[in-house]
Amino acid sequence: GLGRVWLVGGGPGDTGLVTARGRSILAQADVVIVDRLGPRALLEELSPDVEIVDVGKTSGNHPVPQHEINALLIQHAQAGSDVVRLKGGDPYVLGRGGEELSACRAAGIEVEVVPGVTSAVSVPAAAGIPVTHRGVARGFSVLTGHDGAAEVPGGADHTLVLLMGVTRLADTAAALVTADRPADTPVAVVEDGYGPGQRVTVGTLANIAERAAEVGVRPPAVIVVGAVVRLSPSWPHQAR
Amino acid sequence: GLGRVWLVGGGPGDTGLVTARGRSILAQADVVIVDRLGPRALLEELSPDVEIVDVGKTSGNHPVPQHEINALLIQHAQAGSDVVRLKGGDPYVLGRGGEELSACRAAGIEVEVVPGVTSAVSVPAAAGIPVTHRGVARGFSVLTGHDGAAEVPGGADHTLVLLMGVTRLADTAAALVTADRPADTPVAVVEDGYGPGQRVTVGTLANIAERAAEVGVRPPAVIVVGAVVRLSPSWPHQAR
User: Domain boundary at A114, A131, A166, which?
Assistant: First the structure.
């Protein structure tokens, strides 16, 4: 018979931040399809006969294109395997989970999405930054750094979280300066949230690109823009 | 000696969507402080000598005010207990986690935030709605329904998620109609996500308040506004 597919949100990388359901589904998988953003340490717990397929980008190589990932999910399920697509964060937060779900359904494969702890909220938290905070920020927006960030207005009391934005940080920071969001709006770049290389670089829209370049910030990183950044222990002169 | 405090994001309500770390910390608590939004079924797994303090709103009663919750956390930790504050969703997504953290720190209590699966993303997912989807929505914003929703522009390709917005749905829906976001923009109201009473009501900014009133929508519910709502199986005439 056909296998099934689960799109599992693996959380920000810390193995403790996978959901109980995600973990138990993973433990029953025949095939696990991973990329560089999922909590890869979980793979070490798997039975040795589980097939692990790595579709992640590695330096110097290209990642497997999305349509090929979709095809892999379908092929393995059609061959009778139960397949887990282990994703970083949450499958529906800029994770292309919806595309994978549609592709599987179109092929007649049963598929379920298991939500995860999104990096958009948890990676800022790892740096001591709450995306909302009474009297500081009443809401937040999540965008890629590549497009659209400048189209979401809102003052410093509305937090912006940018995923996949490191390579275009200079352009994005410049575009974000508006009448409502001045050049001295605080910014934090959080690299490798919860990982061994976690590092927080803070600055303002005016100087964050320069500071990030100085310390050699690299993806994966989450960028947070707004007054909440001042609540981080990494922000200088904080009072608490 | 002093106890410690953990602010644990319990996820949207399904016991499988608590993180592994949240679950293991909960299992070691002396005192658990809960409200109506946390995954209360988890409490049944606790040892009978764990003290459970309910600070939730019940019909006809008022909830415990935030400053009293802060004081409870501190008092129990000062008395030597390890305290878990079990919260719905994620502590930092309109969950007042930052206030509880600050209060504990100011009192000299060690406190840690354990991120959770936010209802803002997972409750829409329970209704088959991805907050982002290639070609449909490139980002999303999370706000309360009470304030600020109308201040976040963006067309139907930017998803709005409103928490705690059911009681003011008519006002909010009217305020959200702008040049970029027409009155026929799809809206879904998802009640009791993952719970036994999960129900999805769909409509448009023009008619959602009337439809919600017709079926008697009640909190807790998550409101999703944008083209992604059409991807839900609850949307009529969908093609997939």
Answer: A114
ipTM of the complex: 0.94
Residue A126 and residue A71 share a domain: no
Domain span at B104: 5-114
Chain A residue closest to B123 (CA)?
A: A115
| Mean pLDDT for chain B overall | 92
> Where would I find the beta strands (DSSP E) of B29-103?
31-34, 51-54, 83-87
Residues from chain B that touch A42, judged by Cβ atoms under 8 A, are none
**pLDDT > 70: what percent of chain A?**
93
- A82 within 8 A of A29, measured Cβ to Cβ: yes
pLDDT of residue B147: 63
Question: Do B51 and B130 have their domain in common?
Answer: no
Which chain A residues are closer than 8 Å to B24 by Cβ?
A: 16
Domain edge (last residue) among A114, A140, A166: A114
User: What is the SS3 assignment for A76?
Assistant: helix
Give Cβ neighbours of residue B48 (< 8 Å, ≥ 6 apart).
Answer: none
Portion of chain A with pLDDT greater than 90, in percent: 81
- How many domains does chain B divide into? 2
Give domain status of residue A139, yes or no: yes
Tell me, yes or no, if B157 is annotated catalytic.
Answer: no
Give me the mean pLDDT over the B206-228 stretch.
96
CA–CA separation, B114 vs B142, rounded Å? 20
pLDDT at B240 over 50: no
User: Are both B85 and B173 inside the same structural domain?
Assistant: no
